[in-house]
Amino acid sequence: MNGISRLATVISLASLFPLHALAADSKGAVEVVHWWTSGGEKAAVDVLKAQVEKDGFTWKDGAVAGGGGATAMTVLKSRAVAGNPPGVAQIKGPDIQEWGSTGLLSTEALKGVAKAENWDGLLAPQVSDTVKYEGDYVAVPVNIHRVNWLWINPQVFKKAGIDKAPTTLQEFYAAGDKLKAAGFIALAHGGQPWQDSTVFEDVVLSVMGVEGYKKALVDLDQNTLAGAQMTQAFTELKKITAYMDPNRAGRDWNIAAADVINGRAGMQMMGDWAKSEWTAAKKIAGQDYQCVAFPGTEKAFTYNIDSLAVFKLKADRTGDIAAQQDLAKVALGKDFQKIFSINKGSIPVRNDMLNDMAAQGFDSCAQTSAKDFLADAQSGGLQPSMAHNMATTLAVQGAIFDVVTNFMNDKDADPAKASAQLASAVKAAQ
Ligand code: GAL
Q1: pLDDT of residue 332
Q2: Nearest alpha carbon, ligand 1 atom 1
Q3: How far apart are the C-alpha atoms of 356 and 64, rounded to whole Å?
Q4: What is the 8-class DSSP label of residue 68?
């Protein structure tokens, strides 16, 4: 059974249960399910909350802790099954289509605001297609994250005798050796499946290039998944894993980021939400920390677009529907796009802002990100992130996560066997 019909079967049970209306105040309320709970992420989502409240609506915070959102998605599914979905939820990528096919997302609520605010004109077609279901907007995109970043503490590098950011895997290993020898954690990391696969997809991109990444993790081509280049990627992944803290199991990504910020570790491979932690710690890009593309991925941009999907509410809940519409309008507004991304570490999703980042006060990391996003959109280097729900269904993603995490936790794992396992796990999940 594919992902869509699996989700549809579960959700169809929802019709057996009555809908519970949220207690709304007179102007309307919106409950938002999301997983933005680290210090930096919370600062970002608080910007949206403040604006919605300023507009007179009640914000009900449905935060579910857990980076990458797997727990939040489980909560969302069980609420949908119980006939009690929130007004708005953070849902991304192809998953939006799966939810759309259940009939639970609203194809009506955003029509007016999308037209009045000219969303079709503001968004690149790759972005607007993702958040539309059968031609209608069912979600509002809030930002663009780049996943293939390496975060560096230059003070730590200096203490370890490293004078520049690595640009090849060999230089990365050389830096890792020096950091270890100087008593630092070379690569801060949290041993959670989505973090493991964030590292894995960077390595696939570095070893196999954009074409190989696309064939393997977007097109799910069996020969590429099981091929020699994939075995090579697992070989490099094994080397990289050796630079991580052995006590990493279960550690949250923001705790790993704090290790780099506080000078206990030299580097972290993480998307640019990691920057939200540096920003919250009042550190300056290019001065207190460096952001560089993971070695070998300079000409690529793995994207991760956060978006907020809107659930269908009973027609008599006019105030709550108005609250959904207000949130959507705010989310694509210029002011919000700027302040949210500055706090979140991302870049705006609006075309008219991406060309003009320095003038708007974005830092050097965000400027590089926007420049690369626009260039890679032309060259084909712009690719959806598998680890962040942009490339495949959650079922396929889960199958990949299992193979990758088992591999990274088994010192004796064999790279050739891992690529064969990857191909068969993906096939079984399709
Ligand atoms: C990503 C999400 C980001 C950030 C990160 C860590 O999937 O798109 O916004 O929250 O997880 O939780």
Answers
A1: 97
A2: 68
A3: 34
A4: G
Q: How many domains are there within the chain?
A: 2
Structure tokens at 62: 């449905």
CATH code for the domain in which residue 163 is found: 3.40.190.10
- Whether 359 is covered by a domain: the verdict is yes
Which atom number of ligand 1 is nearest to the Cα of residue 66? 12
| Low pLDDT (below 50) residues in the chain | 1, 4, 13-24
Token pair for residue 178? 């020096």
Query: Is residue 251 domain-shared with residue 400, that is, in the same domain?
Result: yes
H helix runs in 182-300, sequence order: 193-213, 222-225, 228-241, 253-261, 274-280
Q: Which residues line ligand 1 (CB under 6 A)?
A: 35-36, 41, 67-69, 145, 253, 273, 304, 306, 388
The pLDDT score that the predictor gives to residue 126 is 84
pLDDT digits (tens, 9 = 90+) for 241-264: 999 999 999 999 999 999 999 999
The model carries a pTM of 0.94
Write down the pLDDT at residue 23: 44
Candidate from 305, 306, 307, 401 with most ligand 1 atoms within 8 A of CB, to mutate: 306
Query: Do 123 and 256 fall into the same domain?
Result: no
Which range of residues forms the domain containing residue 38?
3-145+305-365
Q: Are residues 137 and 273 in the same domain?
A: no
Which protein residue has the closest C-alpha to ligand 1 atom 5?
68
pLDDT of the residue at 205: 98
Residue minimizing CA distance to atom 6 of ligand 1: 67
187 and 97, same domain (yes or no): no
- How far is C-alpha 39 from the chain's CA centre? 17
